[in-house]
């Protein structure tokens, strides 16, 4: 898709200008970060991902939660080349617990962060430009709320969660996973590319602790049926009752605050919400 | 043109019988190294599968002689089928890979394949041989059954072994996706685990029984998910004029398709196969393990993951991951019940406590390839890891790398893997089997590709190394049976024999992927500390 010839240049100029004004409080403009809404999850993108959760350095994403260097006497010891059985030091005071898969332009993240101030919220997005937008957005918000220290608990990184979720999170690390307005992949041939599938649900169950919740919302009824069908079919999940779903604050935020949610609202579309609870694994 | 060498090997039981695959045939050799029999796969009436498939099998063979009128009618039929069956992958019709589509239908699919094949056969007859190529071979530990998988038509053959080297074909089952790894479950090896290139693992009964035939109920379950997929967007989800128009068009097409579908019977898999688990990545290997009397399934993929799942019936529960590889994984094995060894595109073999998901050690492989096998360069790709389970070789683990003229022997002691020796061989090793021979030293048999050896190559390419022999005895030689040889251009042969190296990711894949990405350098912005973690720096 060849864009306007000077589009690239304009984007580069914009980014340069932003990077020069330190502590920018001005929000980034979406028009400089737009990107085609579909990515092939099977492709070998030039992704960067940690070898394992223990190798993940979260500090750049949540600088306010960084542990002090003197708390890490092991830091020097781990510097040797032989990483075997060398657990990397934890770099944050707490772990990421809430994940938005395919966070898009970050509407949900930004709305969730103030409501859950004692949890770390992370967005993962496969599109580079969009990820960058969210990172800029968080940077601006942090700068705007420097006094109240808000938005320090929210971060965003580029990742292909379908392939590399277990590289980032340990077993049972997460308490909530949001899957908001995912790519519907209408063609039957593309169904494996859907973010919810019988086999992929096992990975969500792996990173989610028992009692944790998967939130799904979509404006496509068939995709909703598909997600409900596959998550209900999976022995590790049960659907959360209507009543409980209504009382969940996150559902309201998810319905009204996501960028797609707003768009659907404007177009007077439907929204389908379904929540699923991670069950304890059966004895083995 | 070059004939194909013997590729895959397996020992049948403990009586010294060796089974080797060459092209689409299996050969069995007696303990005294004489040929017992040749078994062409799919070339005789199958015992359990319907005669229909057989018929088409024959039809396919006759295909080049048939008139073109039939060819065109079948091609049309194939197209019709394609539209009716959902998970068909469209393939590029290039000069190679001429399979028109991959479909779950057995009967119909054969026709579809025929259609594509015929087009090809006109131009390049050699390619067609790829259809029936053994790509995986495995025998039960007792040697009672042999499982062979052929590429191209993605068919799993199960053969019964009478204990004396004679094989009888029991079943043919055509998979939707190309299998990339097979394993047999520990419960008397009644179930075949099939890992495929799409990332899924299926369980198939070794011997399909009559009640396993897919009944209406099970088929309905499958239909259900297909039905869910049928409808797409609606006029509330699309908003632009053009999209709305497209939607109308889709609805019209769907109605037409529906009609068509009612006319012909819905095609689905005709045999029992249970989806156990799946990665969103190409699977390269699968193994079974057990701990505390419980079975587990270990799967390795191209994206550096080794997943430890519970065994049947709780295969949906992931116990943990063994993460540490920095390149693809191509082979995993368990030389001891509690120790997993994995290899692939990395320069070392990794030794794991798989139950805990902890890396115990790494054992260098590249250095030995460089020093002792005249390998230049800094990359190797492990084709296979073979733990030795025969007398005289207890605790040995043999590794073979792609296009490296050597066999690397390691020793496994008390959970520690150490390098033992390099055995240089006269060609590129393809597969290894350990054969226990009564009253004689056990043999390590290595199939070699000797095509780059100067001049004609009269030997079978089966290299024999006697274990625990200390060079006392001259190793026997296996004969090189005539017949059943498929001649292919050398480039085609290479494509069949050397597939592991292609698993390596290329560095600049992203340039074309991801639509209008501004710059690849963007990926660096706020990237996780992967590079950092690699060097181990805090």
TrEMBL record, chain A:
Q: Which reaction does it catalyse?
A: guanosine(46) in tRNA + S-adenosyl-L-methionine = N(7)-methylguanosine(46) in tRNA + S-adenosyl-L-homocysteine
Q: Which GO terms describe its biological process?
A: methylation
Pathway(s) where this gene product acts:
tRNA modification; N(7)-methylguanine-tRNA biosynthesis
Q: What class of enzyme is it?
A: transferase
Record localization: Nucleus
Quaternary state and interactors: Forms a complex with TRM82.
Say which family it is in: Belongs to the class I-like SAM-binding methyltransferase superfamily. TrmB family.
The task this protein performs is described as:
Catalyzes the formation of N(7)-methylguanine at position 46 (m7G46) in tRNA.
Name assigned to this protein = tRNA (guanine-N(7)-)-methyltransferase
TrEMBL record, chain B:
Residue span of region Disordered: 40-125, 513-538
Instruction: Tell me which UniProt keywords the record has, alphabetically.
Output: Nucleus, Repeat, tRNA processing, WD repeat
Q: Low complexity compositional bias: what residue ranges?
A: 107-116, 513-522, 528-538
| Cross-referenced Gene3D superfamilies | YVTN repeat-like/Quinoprotein amine dehydrogenase
Predominant location: nucleus
Which pathway is this protein assigned to?
A: tRNA modification; N(7)-methylguanine-tRNA biosynthesis
Start and end residues of the WD repeats are: 322-353
Q: According to the UniProt entry, which residue ranges have a biased composition of type Polar residues? A: 63-84
Q: From which domain of life does this come?
A: Eukaryota
| SUPFAM superfamilies referenced in this protein's UniProt entry, alphabetically | WD40 repeat-like
- Localization: Nucleus
Concerning InterPro entries, the annotation shows: Trm82, WD40/YVTN_repeat-like_dom_sf, WD40_repeat_dom_sf, WD40_rpt
Please explain the role this protein plays, according to its UniProt record: Required for the formation of N(7)-methylguanine at position 46 (m7G46) in tRNA. In the complex, it is required to stabilize and induce conformational changes of the catalytic subunit.
Q: Which family does it belong to?
A: Belongs to the WD repeat TRM82 family.
Q: What is this protein called?
A: tRNA (guanine-N(7)-)-methyltransferase non-catalytic subunit TRM82
Q: Which organism is it from?
A: Apiospora rasikravindrae
- Organism placement in taxonomy: Eukaryota, Fungi, Dikarya, Ascomycota, Pezizomycotina
